[in-house]
Design a protein that fits this description.
Number of helices: 4
Number of strands: 7
Structural class: alpha/beta
CATH superfamily: P-loop containing nucleotide triphosphate hydrolases
Strand content: 25-35%
CATH topology: Rossmann fold
Helix content: 25-40%
Strand order of the largest sheet: 1-7-6-2-5-4-3
Amino acid sequence: MSATSGAWMLADARATQQLGESFGRHCPWTNDAARSLFLSGELGAGKTTLAAALLAAAGVREPVRSPSYALIEIYGIGSRLAVHVDLYRLRGAAELEQLGLRDYLQPETLLLIEWPEHGEPELPQPDLWLHLAIAEGRVCRPQALSAAGEAWLAAACREIPLSDIG
């Protein structure tokens, strides 16, 4: 699969939330595999804001907590499951194994992983990787890495088109 050219300019926290909501509404849940979305970016780039909005739009009805200290938060969405992971404080592959992420690689499950670069190469390949940056506001550059990721990205782009900013 290929990277997508273009990005979203996110003027403020509300724009970041709107983008997260779009991805939450269009999550390609399936009965055959887990879906995964990675969020990368420097501190303050909007990863947790986007993740919380995505989870709420996907159907999480309880308050979405940042998994910064617990490393993992699990939410039931009817018969589905959302697993929100923050690997910022991860100290190695052994800690990643202790999280038991393999147990969640099941149908009707969404793995939403912040700071995935702290867990590579042990993490499963994501369907979609959103790279957030702070540059004259905030920028989100998407990268689809599977057919499901391409469909997910296409659905979000129909709702909020990418800008040609390079």
